[in-house]
Design goal:
The chain is built from five helices and no strands. With 121 residues, it is mainly α. It is flat, with a radius of gyration of 17 Å.
């Protein structure tokens, strides 16, 4: 049972990274916000899976707080404060083009993985 939960957590982590790369690659503001919500829900799912496996009320609280703040409150505030024209028409200005930004992101992911798990490098 524990192995299945950790496999699901690894899947949530991989999807979290894909959502992060999606935020880097997208140019529309609304798509970025939607990917931010998906990323927040995946982060909460990871905390929920690990909290359920360890029976940790702290991780379950982290999952609840993540859903409430990152997936609900922040997007609601942004939609309320930012004019709707921004979501329909505006694109995000990039310092780097999309391929360069994705390459830099991939390098950072590999470096972070190597630092977090020295045996993998």
């Amino acid at each position: 049972m524990g192995g299945a939960i950790f496999a699901l957590d690894a899947l949530a982590g991989a999807l979290f990274l894909l959502a992060a790369l999606g935020v880097v690659a997208t140019r529309q503001v609304l798509a970025s916000l939607q990917l931010f919500i998906v990323q927040s829900l995946l982060l909460a799912a990871s905390a929920l899976l690990l909290g359920g496996a360890d029976r940790s009320p702290h991780l379950l609280a982290v999952a609840a707080i993540t859903v409430l703040t990152k997936a609900l409150l922040i997007p609601w505030l942004l939609r309320r404060m930012v004019p709707s024209e921004v979501y329909r028409m505006r694109e995000v200005e990039r310092v780097l083009n999309i391929p360069s930004a994705l390459l830099a992101s991939a390098v950072l992911i590999v470096v972070a993985y190597a630092v977090a798990d020295p045996l993998a490098a």
